[in-house]
Amino acid sequence: MDPFLLEAVLNGVLLGGVFALPVLGLNLVFGVVDVIWLCYAELVMVGMYIVWFLHTQAGWPLALAFATCLPAIAVLGLLLHLLVVRPLLAAPPINQVLATGGVLFVLQGAATLVFSTDFRSLGVEMPPIELGEVFVSGTKLAAFVAALLGAAVLWAFLKFTYVGTAIRAIARDREVMPLMGVDPHRIYLIASAAGGALAGLAACLLVVQLDVHPFVGLSFGPITFMICVMGGLGNMLGGFLAAFLMGLIVSVGGFYGDTDMSYVVAFLFFILVMFIRPQGLFTR
Amino acid sequence: MSGVGTLELSGIHAGYGDFQALFGVDLRVEPGEAVGVVGPNGAGKTTLLRVISGLIRASAGTLRFGGADLAAVPAHELPVLGIAHVPENRRLFPQLTVEENLKVGAYIKSARARFQERRDHVFELFPRLKQRRHQLAGTMSGGEQQMCAIGRALMSGPRILLLDEPSAGLAPLVVQQVFDLVRRIRQEGLTVLIVEQNVAQVLRVVDRAYVLETGRVAAEGASAALAADPAIRRSYLGGALSAWIPSCWRPC
Fold first, then answer.
1. What residues of chain A lie within 8 A of the CB of B76, using their CB?
2. Which ipTM value was assigned to this complex?
């Protein structure tokens, strides 16, 4: 096999791992609360600024900046739920989408106000790793491993804990949950915090690969939503698999054409999926 | 004076929006008793159970369990007080396994510590569930799903079990099995309030019963007395089809 093609495939898998985190976070919140956080990529953007600021401006060690980013964005997710989503729980879905869309612009505007539109770089790069004939970016590999670990922790939480099992149950039948002694509002809070924590982890993994600017969310936000819909909204496993599929399409497409073209191919593929399987690729 | 686990409803009015389903219902269940509520479709039987488990609020009247006023208790805290409700149509989580369904049933703090013990007890009551413990609940037969729903309710360690139409949609042979199970649960000293359209069957299981008609208690008494009552026999036990057409027809 052509080593360059192999490299593209490998990069696609690595990219898929990073796409997977925000996809899982969005699906978790949507599945439980039944609200789409349109500003999800902007939560990631805020997290990226937190890491960048703490590391390059305040001089904190990178690990400490990462460890702060995660709970900080989890709290941001909680606030988003309490201040914006909860008052609109009974409102029509379009109002909820518009409200979280408004938060998107608020966060972009606030970031522009505080940090200006400059591109900020963390300036951290790990040496490439040689695997047989191909070279892999050490940073991307580390991000991939961290993303898989994050996904594994989420899976174990959903599979083995009482709260996690209740989260999977509530996604199916909301009304019956109080009969089990489950307070739905408490579950919504937990899911929102977990969704925020996943955005925080995604921020840590993206900030080492991308420069931060107020509109950085646009570079992965739309594709994140596309992957969610492709995997079946609310379907965690479907979204996880679709993330890798999309990573491969973007990366291998970039190998045959150029990177911009590969996103066109990815979006065309998405439209095709919507025609053939609008309920999601991996929905049974 | 109400005893430790007495369920007491007096003058309960309730409904959905503008639609009123219950008009001043009085009902009492003593600890260890099995009580039935029978009546035609649309009589308010399901609404009655939903009021008791807090899914809808009474617009008037008092609701007490073990002496505590339930009006101010949120629905999700009622299982903590010992009330477990097996809802109409079972409402299992179809994409979760049997064991995971039981786990959700053991969500409350006091139940988590005793999960294994109670799960094993449920498996003892329903050996069929043990065989199918790793199967998705949605793929089981109706009778097995009803066992799972009852098992899930038992996981919280309730003092009173509310059963909403446990025989609905089941084959006659399975209906028989389900009522045998209710009898066994009773023998363990659990208080049972059971809502049924299958009057003949339920009167064999319960001690007393209430007849609910258009949201009002039309008759009450010991099962044997009700079963012998000519009016009841004519309306509910004789198989007269007209009894099953609600006098105030509504689409739900």
1. 177-178, 180-184
2. 0.86
